[in-house]
From TrEMBL:
Signal peptide: none
Species the sequence originates in: Streptomyces nanshensis
GO CC annotation, single: membrane
Localization annotation: Membrane
Stated name of the protein: EamA domain-containing protein
Entry membrane topology: Multi-pass membrane protein
Predominant location category: membrane
Cross-referenced InterPro entries: AA-Vitamin_Transporters, EamA_dom, EmrE-like
TM regions (residue ranges): 30-48, 57-76, 82-101, 113-134, 146-166, 178-202, 208-226, 238-257, 263-281
Family: Belongs to the EamA transporter family.
Keyword Membrane attributed: yes
SUPFAM superfamilies registered for this protein in UniProt: Multidrug resistance efflux transporter EmrE (SSF103481)
One Pfam family from the record: EamA
């Protein structure tokens, strides 16, 4: 899951190299339309078995596929309007909240104190990044409120396909089959969007390189890793782990794009990392001699 988040963190930097006339809709459609088709082809017949697995599985796949189609269009539009840093951190920062609500309503999953602590730390860090990182960036958003609204929509969509993907996996299908089915359905919507809006992106060599990278690496490869993670941990935990994405995005923004982050933005980055440590690191406490109990595993 952390590997997937690292690859996703490169999307904003990669998209910044696209030609100036490229629409964020075409960038999003190329990323998850072409990448979704590749994911479906890699899954092969196993993805088709998801779609033929009965009325309940088909409903989950359709809902998840619809969320897959909405997510990139909203996400890349959010970055275009609010800036790369703000669009990324708000999208990823709100997704655990939406995922937790969906899991609570759909599955009845109980939220642990550990999850609340991790999400509070990481969410606070994302808020600091959103409020402070965009001001010194090379690309300034022109409609921050509209971009934030789109980022919230993207976060809800992300949480939705994570939850429905997890339900398909827990129904007995492989992670590759689940991701292939969802992204194949999403591609049915996104590829026509690309055909309508993709002229400036696909007509220049630089645009083609950007589209190819986004479709193969942060889309196809990353979502294979994401599906493998969903097979092992709850969707709420998965979406919290992906808060590592804005950390990667911030570092690349400084090192590659030339953005400048102040002390508060770096504090936000540290809080995101703290949240990830709280969520992922298990530790043991050794009792003092004479207690007679040896080691007792403790939840962080």
């Amino acid at each position: 899951m952390l590997g997937a988040a690292t690859l996703w963190g490169t999307t904003g930097t990669a998209a910044s190299f696209a030609p100036a006339a490229v629409s964020p809709l075409s960038t999003g459609a190329a990323t998850m339309g072409v990448g979704g088709l590749l994911t479906f082809l890699l899954a092969g017949r196993s993805a088709l078995r998801v779609l033929r697995g009965g009325r309940r599985l088909l409903l989950w796949a359709l809902l998840g596929g619809a969320a897959v189609a909405v997510y990139p269009l909203a996400f890349y539009s959010a970055m275009d309007r609010a800036g790369v840093a703000a669009g990324t951190v708000v999208t990823i920062g709100c997704s655990p909240v939406f995922a937790a609500l969906l899991e609570r309503v759909l599955v009845g999953v109980r939220l642990t104190l550990r999850w609340f602590a991790a999400t509070l730390a990481a969410g606070t860090g994302c808020a600091l990044l959103a409020l402070t990182a965009s001001g010194g960036g090379a690309r300034t958003g022109h409609d921050v409120p509209g971009g934030i609204a789109l980022a919230l929509l993207a976060g809800a969509s992300y949480a939705a396909f994570a939850c429905y993907g997890a339900r398909i996996i827990r129904a007995g299908h492989s992670s590759r089959a689940a991701m292939g089915g969802l992204f194949g359905l999403g591609a049915l919507v996104l590829l026509p969007v690309l055909a309508v809006t993709g002229g400036p992106l696909l007509s220049q060599p630089r645009g083609l390189l950007v589209a190819a990278y986004l479709a193969v690496v942060p889309m196809c490869v990353a979502y294979v890793l994401f599906g493998a993670g969903l097979a092992r941990i709850p969707a709420g935990t998965a979406t919290t782990l992906t808060l590592f994405e804005p950390v990667v995005a911030a570092v690349l923004g400084v090192a590659v794009v030339g953005e400048r982050l102040g002390a508060w933005a770096w504090t936000g980055t540290a809080l995101v990392l703290l949240g990830l440590l709280v969520l992922t690191v298990r530790f043991r406490v050794r009792r003092r001699a004479g207690s007679g109990t040896g080691r007792i595993p403790q939840e962080g």
